[in-house]
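Our platform keeps sequence and structure together, in a single record for each protein. Nothing more is needed to write down the fold, since each code stands for a local backbone conformation. An entry from our holdings is shown next, in its original layout:
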Amino acid sequence: MRMEKTKKKNRIITTVGLVFFIGLFLFSGYMFMTEYMDKKQSAEEFEELAQMVDEEAGEQISAYDRYLPLYEQNNDFAAWIRIDGTAIDYPVMYHPSEVDYYLKRNFERQSSAYGVPYIKEECKLGESDNCTIYGHHMKNGTMFSNLILYEDKAFYDDHKIVHLDTLEGYGQYEIVIVFKTVAYSNAAFNYFDYINFDTQEVFDKYISTCKSLQLYDTGAEAQYGDKLITLSTCEYSKKDGRMVVVARKIS
């Protein structure tokens, strides 16, 4: 009798284990397919958006005419960012009424792990002295992943210019500082809090702190009164690490 109970118990344990592993297998497959479809949809969407822009390629037309179709499709569109020779070639969004709105949403405002590069809510491109633009560091090299390549000064030397176009005009920014920091700790440098430099002293403090963390001397300098952009993405050599690229507007 006891042996029969033991056998029955073992069969139950075996069945439960089998059901568990089948469920785990199905869940893993579901997650894999979800990630694959999200990746595919994200790539297709950005390719379509890039084609819309490229149909009006060249600066023989105004930036307004070139990017108006994107703004009409989604009026959160604020700019188009491009760094030649990298995979960074995306729309930049601005949704000031909700924090991190595009962190997990695509251009159509639908759920997506890839998100879309976006401007920090307190900033206003063209008006703020310094606008922080966030983008994911995706494992497949998309979004702002290529910012990590700026660890190498030789790469910087060949990729100094960030193109940031708005409806108001074509823009070029020269990269002046590349640094790493961490977030959510006492050692963090909250670079994203520097939005307007009301005095020379505030500006100098921001620049000097950035330079204290810089990976190398670019030889480029920013001056008080320059319009800056700060590109930010995750960096995985440290917990909550951040890779940050600061550039000044030159045209």
Remarks:
- The chain has a mean pLDDT of 87.
- The longest strand covers residues 172-182.
- Residues 30 and 36 are 10 Å apart (CA to CA).
- The radius of gyration is 23 Å.
